[in-house]
Structure of Ribosome-recycling factor:
Amino acid sequence: MDERLKVYDSKMTKSFDALLRDYAAIRAGRANPHVLDKIKVDYYGTPTPLQQVGNISVPEARIIQIQPWEKKLIREIEKAIMTSDLGINPTNDGTSIRLIFPELTEERRKALAKDVKKKGDEAKVAIRNIRRDANEAFKKMNKNNELTEDDQKDLESQAQKMTDKYISDIDKAVEEKTKEIMTV
């Protein structure tokens, strides 16, 4: 790959990875510990990721169990979960916290599938914007006599191929996540 394209490929990779992280946080009826990735717990005055204050496990398909390293963190963890946008009330037995995920309704599944598609479309727009930035940079380099016209066309063609590859990857990710959500 041409050095001048690497920076744009890196940006496209970051956009795609951000989409995959967003998808990991969308719950699809089954318990997925990644839904807790964005939750921070007040740990001695410092917002700390939930994964760093306890052990997270999935004992059953629709249950996540959180075993805090320190018992006094149970209240803080409960508070963090309740104030998050997770929409699940934690239950605690004094030593651990359980999150029980209800079955998703058909209506909720369709809303989540629509959200998945919307996030996919936003990622595609981001990828196309990166391609546009690359093409503008190549035109500017041509204008400043740093590139020949043939080199500019070749770089633009490679940028288009890169864009097509990422758009195709996004389409596959959208399809897989939608299928996962719609499967009962």
In short: The two ends are 43 Å apart (CA to CA). Residues 106-143 form the longest helix (38 residues).
